[in-house]
Specification:
Length: 327
């Protein structure tokens, strides 16, 4: 059942407030017309964001909100992440003079782990996938007096991600956005962007794109509740893993997501190559996933204005080489 306390209007207003708090701490990332598809497709390029992904938005939104009511020395923070949220949260914490512990799955990409440590965070490897790491982080919070910072299940995190939607509305102030394609992990990104856009432009269609190999939120949307799903390795590792049983993102996403798409590993890898070789942008698998969704339905959208969100660029160089060469 949809939780009306987190309505489209409420989240859109919270996104506007978050934008005021964090505008001088994030990058208003460019909107780039596709070289391959021309006027039909634009990229919202948060792969050029500070820390290499959109996650700094939500983290900065949450931490600046906490500092409105707490002193920095009184806050001992812990979060869980498959990598990008940990990078964003640790960077935001360092900039704001806070301490952060990040719980990561044991299969975290080494490059992401190194960046989290470089930001001064204490990194703990616990759990086989991101959902399990969340449970460990929540246990630490209860037992050791940490404040838990969810990577998605938090209205201030969602509001921070919603600033992307506000930037898109500004960028397309003179024309209608017909479609926006967003990769789905825990649902915070699509909930925030979808609310900000739908509040101002109800006719814009929000497409949620999931990887077949780890599609917990897609299953939750279809069932109307969080369900157990199998998690297999995926190139889109940033959106892999389980979802909080009582996540507020499900109720919000039910209000804003118009269509759900599932993409195979072959789809994601093909779109990764398209972005690198045709568009000149090397991104991470989760960003290629959003383009894979668009390419799945592109023939039906000819002549419409579509936007693909490129959510990040934090990919290991060796993995990128393997994806490009097939070796």
């Amino acid at each position: 059942m949809t939780d009306t306390s987190y309505s489209i209007s409420n989240i859109a207003q919270a996104a506007a407030a978050a934008r005021k708090r964090i505008a001088n701490r994030i990058c208003n990332t460019p909107v780039i017309r596709s070289k391959l598809y021309g006027e039909d497709l634009y990229y919202k390029a948060d792969n050029f964001q500070h820390t290499g992904s959109f996650k700094i938005r939500g983290a900065m939104s949450k931490l600046t909100k906490l500092l409105e009511n707490h002193k920095a020395d009184d806050l001992k923070l812990i979060t869980a992440s498959s990598g990008n949220h940990g990078i964003g949260a640790s960077a935001a914490a360092t900039e704001l003079g806070l301490t952060m512990t990040v719980v990561l799955p044991t299969n975290v990409a080494p490059m992401k782990l190194d960046r989290i440590k470089a930001n001064g965070a204490n990194a703990l490897l616990e759990g086989a996938e991101a959902g399990a790491s969340e449970i460990h982080a929540q246990d630490h919070a209860r037992q050791d007096g940490f404040v838990y910072v969810s990577p998605y299940n938090d209205p201030d995190i969602i509001a921070g991600q919603g600033t992307i939607g506000l930037e898109l509305l500004d960028a397309f102030a003179d024309r209608q956005i017909d479609n926006v394609f967003i990769s789905i992990g825990g649902g915070g990104l699509i909930s925030g962007i979808g609310s900000a856009i739908k509040h101002a432009s109800p006719k814009t269609k929000i497409w949620g794109v999931s990887a077949v190999n780890s599609a917990a939120f897609d299953a939750a949307l279809k069932k109307g509740r969080v369900v157990e799903t199998e998690h297999l390795p995926t190139v889109a590792d940033a959106v892999a893993g389980g979802v909080d049983t009582h996540t507020i993102t499900l109720g919000i996403a039910q209000q804003v997501v118009d269509e759900c798409l599932l993409c195979s590993e072959e789809d994601i890898e093909r779109s990764f190559k398209t972005l690198a070789l045709e568009e000149g942008m090397v991104v991470e698998g989760a960003a290629a996933l959003a383009l894979a969704g668009y390419e799945q339905v592109r023939a039906d959208l000819e002549g419409q204005t579509s936007v693909v969100l490129l959510c990040g660029s934090n990919i290991d160089g060796e993995q990128a080489r393997q994806l490009l060469t097939g070796q």
